[in-house]
């Protein structure tokens, strides 16, 4: 499953529901993926201190990062056109599509994308 940026931020903020879900999936041996776009979005979070950045990097290291490559970029462009998504969101959705995995998110705009399965946390 691909974990969206909003779930990563929720975990970094110690939100119990998000922390519990990811902990359970990890204990079950599920592969937890993130897009390289999620790394950029997380580390660009406004007000992030050096200490927060180091904490975020350490947490992100627990996930398998999928690079944003040309194949994902082409799908992201199509998703942006078809669903009026911002490029980062289109890229994350395209990553879920190309890897054929569900997207774990709190962002309801992803529900309109018929090509992916959403898991809400």
Walk me through this protein's architecture.
The protein is mainly α and 121 residues long. The chain has one domain (2-120): Rossmann fold (3-Layer(aba) Sandwich), CATH 3.40.50. It has six helices and five strands. It has helices at 5-12, 16-27, 36-43, 50-60, 70-83, 87-99, and strands at residues 2-3, 33-35, 64-66, 103-105, 118-120. Helix 1 (5-12) crosses helix 2 (16-27) and helix 5 (70-83) crosses helix 6. It is globular and about 40 Å long. The mean pLDDT is 97.
List the helices and strands and how they pair.
Layout lengths: L1 E2 L1 H8 L3 H12 L5 E3 H8 L6 H11 L3 E3 L3 H14 L3 H13 L3 E3 L12 E3 L1
Parallel strand pairs: 1-4, 2-3, 4-5
Helix pairs in contact: 1-2, 5-6
Proportion of strand residues: 5-15%
Coarse shape: globular
| CATH domain fold name | Rossmann fold
Low-confidence stretches: none
The chain-level mean pLDDT equals: 97
- SSE ordering: EHHEHHEHHEE
Class by alpha and beta content: mainly alpha
What radius of gyration results from the CA coordinates? 14 Å
Give the end-to-end Cα distance, rounded to a whole number of Å: 13 Å
Biggest sheet strand line-up? 1-4-5
Please give the share of residues in helix: 40-55%
Question: What's the story with the biggest beta sheet?
Answer: 3 strands, parallel
CATH superfamily: 5'-nuclease
Number of domains: 1
Number of helices: 6
Overall CATH architecture? 3-Layer(aba) Sandwich
Number of strands: 5
Oligomer: single chain
